[in-house]
Amino acid sequence: MIKVKIDTKEIFHVISIEETNLTANMAEELMELIAKKQEEENKSLVINLLGVEALDDKIAASFQQLHENTYAQNKSMVVCGLSPEVKNTFQEHGLSDTINITPTESEAWDIVQMEEIERELGLDTE
């Protein structure tokens, strides 16, 4: 079972991955866990990868799909706390250009809140 910590805020969930290596067989489990949380309470997502040192290509592809699904539901998604290795994997898959990525969780919160304000004002957030 994949280890995560979920902290629910007013307009978003912070999902902190507490694994050092995200493997392909964890992709489905992680996405199911996030989907279940979103069914309970559909909010924007902050995915904190601070402790993750490596991730599999399948996980990277899952993040792209999660990003698309989240924005399709008129919510935001930001990934933060990438190690150099994880950042390289994201870049190899072109995710750095399509997914919001920040160095810190605090900056991720700021993006989610700004995009929420943009939605309320009727501005395009993507």
CATH topology group: Transcription Regulator spoIIAA
CATH arch. level architecture: 2-Layer Sandwich
Q: Total strand count, please? A: 7
Principal-axis shape = globular
CATH class (first level) name: Alpha Beta
Contiguous low-pLDDT stretches (5 residues minimum) are none
The CATH fourth-level homologous superfamily: STAS domain
What is the averaged pLDDT score?
A: 92
Subunit arrangement of the protein: single chain
User: Biggest sheet, open or closed, and with what strands and sense?
Assistant: 5 strands, mixed
Order of strands in the sheet with most strands: 1-2-4-6-7
- The end-to-end span amounts to 33 Å
Name the beta content range.
15-25%
Provide the number of structural domains: 1
Number of helical regions: 4
State the secondary-structure class.
alpha/beta
- Report the order of strands and helices: EEEHEEHEHEH
Helix content: 40-55%
Q: What is Rg?
A: 14 Å
Offer a concise description of the structure.
The protein is an alpha/beta fold. It contains four helices and seven strands; from the N terminus they run βββαββαβαβα.
Helix and strand topology:
Layout: E1 4-8, E2 12-17, E3 21-22, H1 24-40, E4 44-48, E5 54-55, H2 57-72, E6 77-80, H3 84-92, E7 100-102, H4 105-120
Parallel strand pairs: 2-4, 3-5, 4-6, 6-7
Antiparallel strand pairs: 1-2
Helix pairs in contact: 1-2
Your description of this structure?
- With 126 residues, the protein is of the alpha/beta class.
- The protein has a single domain (4-120), classed as 2-Layer Sandwich (Transcription Regulator spoIIAA), CATH 3.30.750.
- It contains four helices and seven strands.
- It has helices spanning 24-40, 57-72, 84-92, 105-120; strands spanning 4-8, 12-17, 21-22, 44-48, 54-55, 77-80, 100-102.
- It has a five-stranded mixed β-sheet with strand order 1-2-4-6-7. A two-stranded parallel ribbon has the order 3-5.
- A hairpin with a 3-residue loop joins strand 1 and strand 2 (12-17).
- Helix 1 runs parallel beside helix 2.
- The longest helix is centred in the N-terminal third of the chain and has 17 residues, at 24-40.
- It is globular and about 40 Å long.
